Amino acid sequence: MSALFEVEGLSRRFGGILAVDSVSFSLAEGEILGIIGPNGSGKSTLFNCILGQLRPTAGRVRFAGRDITGMRPSALARLGIGRTFQLLQIFPGLEVRANLLAAGQEHRGSMAGRLFGPPDAGLAEEVERMLAFFRLAHLAREPAGSLSYGQQKLLDIAMAFMAGPRLVFLDEPAGGVNPGMLAELGERLRLLNRERGASFVLIEHNIEFVMGLCSRVLVMAEGRIIAEGAPEAVRADPEVIEAYLGG
Amino acid sequence: MSAGRLAGPAIGLAVTILLLLLPLTLRGYGIYLMSLWAVLTIAAMGLNLTLGYAGQVSLAQGAFVGIGAYAAALLTTAGWPLALGMAVGVGLGLIVGWLLGYPALRVQHHYLAFVTLGANTLLFLVFRNEDWLTGGVYGIPGIPRPRIFGLATDDPLVFYYFCLAMLLLVTLALGLLLRSPWGRAFEALRENPVRAESLGIDTRRYTLLAFAIGSAVGSLAGTVYAPLVQYIDPYPFALGMSLNLLLMVVVGGSGRFFGPWLGAAIAVLLPEWLRFSEGLYLVFYALLVILVLVFLPGGLMGIAERLRLGRRPVAG
Ligand SMILES: Nc1ncnc2c1ncn2[C@@H]1O[C@H](COP(=O)(O)OP(=O)(O)O)[C@@H](O)[C@H]1O
Ligand SMILES: [Mg+2]
Questions:
Q1: How many other C-beta atoms are found inside a 10 Å radius of the C-beta of residue A125?
Q2: ipTM for the complex?
Q3: Of A89, A117, A163, which has the smallest distance from its Cβ to B200's Cβ?
Q4: Is residue B42 part of a domain?
């Protein structure tokens, strides 16, 4: 069976440093893959090269049998690849509901339909579902910027799922989320994976969170993948321990 | 709560009655000022789309008013109906506005302000130097007032109602546009372009559209401006009008739908009220702008919002 998603020899240089150094990996449909590694090991840069935010210096990226290297983020999103950023990225001045509508509206129909069609782009029900799923329904009419940090984080993730993506990249989804909300967030992600069949690649520092969610983990250090395997095995790997302690 | 919900329609009704009846009590100059207000409000609403909703700075809106004014002036003085002038003016505004959007794909904020300022100067030079087409510094005199459904609009009062009807049409069209997913995409572009792009919103296309549509609305205003003043030369379309339109948007409330209505009223009326101060008028105006920028980021419409939502914190 061929992989849903494949990265081959991806590199990215910033001046003198090789932030991502010939990284290759693949992902099967329905899989949740974790990426861990010390700060500055190139995880976010890897995401940004895959997702069209940065141009890779070398390497190829394939999705569903198609070469997507260097495609623009909006084109990737419309192919069914969602993402969140390491730092919260929402539309703070718009209502929560409008944030979700904006997240879903470009994924079907035509430009003319978006001009002359219904203002909610036919997404009213999906927005309700998403609001209920992330327990944000009571905040639908509030400006997103007035929500608590944890609620904004949930909204950010909800936006990535509005269009029913096949593959979602999450950069530190648990970062800054309080412990009480963390279990809840993990549960939401597991449900999205099981019920909607979405595959994930997630960067995460919280090792418990990764353990609970991922069947396979990649470890990055200084731009390279230094270990790969089941979370428990990786955690015990001396080279991984060395990378964290040495970093 | 119910009183708050009625406030909007009540104000709308009061303003409509005022706009319909007030000119009946005015003489020539007052009617002219109200007509000018309607025309400038149209242009400012276009800029409000580009700047206030889509977040793209433009200091060239006055030049787009000029494009429309010249299109209308040239065609109507040659005997064509104003409707053709409007179609050509708006078409040119769309095309040139789309082109003006390209720099915005590369630079933002004050750099974009400089680029659009350069574009304004370039268009001004075209109006001034291409005498064969525009009459150069001598301008175009004798611009006729249109006939609307067979009705002559030579009477200032009748022409005022034509300006008002155009303003209401533009307001309705922009209201529908901004409620549509396009409007939401513009706002997403302003709020967070990187996030918008990652959600499938083609930010390049919407940036160009925001410039094209906002500029074309400015040109539409120009096609009404020309028969209002009946004589045009290049000088009103130098930087002055662009800056003035920018201030109308900012003072009224950038990104507030009715902000330009208020902003344009102040820009048109203030010089009249401050006539006694002669040269000091600009000082007062500059002071007002500074006060609004510092204390009222939401412009004058922002005050109304705060009164209405008194209990709610204003989102930062
Ligand atoms: N835009 C950039 N310009 C220059 N260097 C960068 C840029 N982005 C990241 N880097 C560098 O690349 C390396 C990897 O950073 P990053 O991908 O953010 O790591 P991680 O997400 O694993 O913490 C770091 O050394 C960082 O300083
Ligand atoms: Mg990172």
A1: 9
A2: 0.95
A3: A163
A4: yes
CB contact (8 A) between residue A145 and residue B192: no
How do A32-36 and A199-203 pair as beta strands? parallel
A78 contacts on B by Cβ (under 8 Å): 200
- Measuring CA to CA, which residue among B4, B20, B246 is closest to residue B116? B246
Minimal-distance CA residue to ligand 1 atom 12: A19
Please state whether beta strands A66-67 and A58-63 pair in parallel, antiparallel, or not at all (unpaired).
antiparallel
pLDDT tens, residue by residue, B280-309:
777 887 788 888 888 888 888 888 777 776
- Alpha carbon distances (Å) from A38 to A32, B108, B248: 20, 34, 51
B116 three-class SS: helix
Residues of B in contact with A51 (CB under 8 A): 198
The backbone torsions φ and ψ at residue B294, rounded to the nearest 5 degrees and listed phi first, read -80, -45
Quote the CA–CA distance of B227 and B235 in Å, as a whole number.
17
First CA to last CA across chain B, in angstroms? 24
What pTM was estimated for this model as a whole?
Answer: 0.94
The Cα of B4 is separated from the nearest Cα of chain A by a number of Å equal to 17
The amino acid that residue B295 corresponds to is F
Cα–Cα distance, B303 to B104 (Å, whole number): 31
Distance of CA A11 to the CA centre of its chain: 20
User: Could you tell me the residue range of the domain that residue B276 belongs to?
Assistant: 26-311
B316 found inside a domain: no
Domain count, chain B: 1
Strand ranges across the sheet with A32-36: A81-83, A167-171, A199-203, A32-36, A216-221, A224-229
What are the backbone angles phi and psi of residue A26, rounded to the nearest 5°? -140, 170
3-state secondary structure of A32: strand
In a domain, B250, yes or no: yes
Alpha carbon distance B231, B222 (integer Å):
12
> Checking DSSP bridges between strand A167-171 and strand B151-152, what pairing results, if any?
unpaired
Answer yes or no: is B4 within a domain.
no
Query: Sign of torsion, CA A47 A50 A55 A60?
Result: positive
**Cα–chain-centroid distance for residue A157?**
8
Rounded to whole angstroms, what are the CA distances from B137 to A143, B2, B75, B132, B228?
51, 57, 19, 11, 19
Q: pLDDT tens, A61-82?
A: 999 999 999 999 999 999 999 9
Q: Which residue of B lies nearest to A111 if distances are taken between CA atoms?
A: B182
Question: Residue B265's domain is classified under what CATH number?
Answer: 1.10.3470
Contact A82, A161 (CB under 8 A): yes
Q: Are B196 and B185 in contact (CB under 8 A)?
A: yes
A182 touches chain B (CB under 8 A): no
| Residue A39 binned pLDDT confidence (cut-offs 50, 70, 90) | very high
